[in-house]
Structures are given as structure tokens and as C-alpha cells.
């Protein structure tokens, strides 16, 4: 199934994230990624959800989300007009010089930042399209990933289109 991105404005209050995630659970859909952050108006937050579903299923999800009292606006984002980014923090085991060199090259090729260097580890920050993050992680698996923290996608449509 293709991945779809749905973004919505919700009231910034306790329990909203639970209601949204519970709606997906009840319908039997796994949330691939979810990000939430307050807007300039602290009473509102923007949620972005990435989900594997076909178009019919996704329409049902959007309709159900739109019925929640706390949801102010909702929109399926057009994949052609959407800029989507994700951040990953990754701790790599770099005990030997070859692994360290390979890690630094992979981080630099992905325009990443080295946040910490210890004798046995490097912590890096990589930002990009979710598929780019996946490719980076595949590349550094052979170095040995000790720990990973991934944000989930944040997305916004190009041009004058707003949520």
C-alpha cells in the first residue's frame, strides 16, 4: 500500500493525540509516523500523520478524523506538491578507524551534522526525505547502529496552498 500524509490542525489540549491514535487503532491501521507541534497560536497544534492505506481507506480515516470535535481543519497532502522532512539522531559504533571514516563519509554525503564524538561512538543528526533517511540507515547498518531516534515526518505543501 502507498504511504499517505495527512495533516490537520487540532486544539492543543490533553487527550487529543490519544483520540487521534485510537481512531487509527480502532480502524486497524498502523500509524507509520506522527508528529505534533504547537502553532503560533498556543491553543492550536498541527499534527502530521503518515499511514499506509489505499485511497478508499484513507478517505474513511479523514472523514472520521474530521468528525472529532478537537479537529479544526484536515487535509490529505498532495505528494507532488508536498515537502516532507524527517530528522534522525543516530549513535554509531566507531571503534576502529575504518568504521569511523565510513561513518563520517556517510554523514557528510547526507549533509548531516556530527553532534558528538567519543572514542567508541559518533552521534549524528540527519535531516531529509523519509526515503533518504532510510537509505542512510541502510548504509550505516554495517558500521553498527547502537541507538536511533526518529521524529516522523513533518510536511507542508508548496505555494499558496495552506492547511
Strand content: 35-45%
Which architecture name of the largest domain does CATH use? 2-Layer Sandwich
- CATH topology of the largest domain, which one? Alpha-Beta Plaits
Q: Number of helical segments?
A: 4
At the first level of CATH, what is the class of the largest domain? Answer: Alpha Beta
Biggest sheet features? 5 strands, antiparallel
Structural class: alpha+beta
Average pLDDT level: 93
Uncertain regions spanning at least 5 consecutive residues: none
How many strands in all?
9
> Any idea how many domains?
2
Calculate the terminal CA-CA distance, rounded to whole Å.
25 Å
Computed over alpha carbons, the radius of gyration is 18 Å
The CATH homologous superfamily of the largest domain is called: ACT domain
Percent helix: 25-40%
Dominant shape:
elongated
Structure in words:
This protein is α+β, with helices and mostly antiparallel strands and 163 residues long. The chain folds into two domains: 3-76, Alpha-Beta Plaits (2-Layer Sandwich); 83-155, 2-Layer Sandwich (Alpha-Beta Plaits), CATH 3.30.70. 30% of the residues lie in helices and 41% in strands. The protein contains four helices and nine strands. The longest helix has 13 residues, at 55-67. The model has no long low-confidence stretch (mean pLDDT 93).
Amino acid at each position: 500500500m502507498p504511504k499517505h500524509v495527512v495533516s490537520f490542525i487540532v486544539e492543543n489540549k490533553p487527550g487529543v493525540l490519544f483520540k487521534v491514535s485510537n481512531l487509527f487503532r480502532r480502524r486497524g491501521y498502523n500509524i507509520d509516523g506522527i508528529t505534533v507541534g504547537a502553532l503560533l497560536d498556543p491553543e492550536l497544534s498541527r499534527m502530521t500523520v503518515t499511514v499506509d492505506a489505499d485511497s478508499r481507506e484513507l478517505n474513511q480515516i479523514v472523514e472520521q478524523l474530521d468528525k472529532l470535535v478537537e479537529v479544526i481543519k484536515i487535509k490529505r497532502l498532495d505528494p507532488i506538491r508536498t515537502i516532507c522532512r524527517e530528522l534522525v539522531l543516530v549513535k554509531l559504533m566507531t571503534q576502529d578507524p575504518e568504521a569511523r571514516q565510513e561513518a563520517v563519509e556517510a554523514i557528510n554525503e547526507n549533509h548531516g551534522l556530527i553532534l558528538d564524538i567519543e572514542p567508541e561512538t559518533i552521534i549524528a543528526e540527519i535531516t531529509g526525505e523519509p526515503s533518504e533517511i532510510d537509505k542512510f540507515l541502510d548504509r550505516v547498518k554495517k558500521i553498527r547502529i547502537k541507538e536511533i531516534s526518529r521524529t516522523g515526518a513533518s510536511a507542508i505543501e508548496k505555494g499558496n496552498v495552506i492547511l
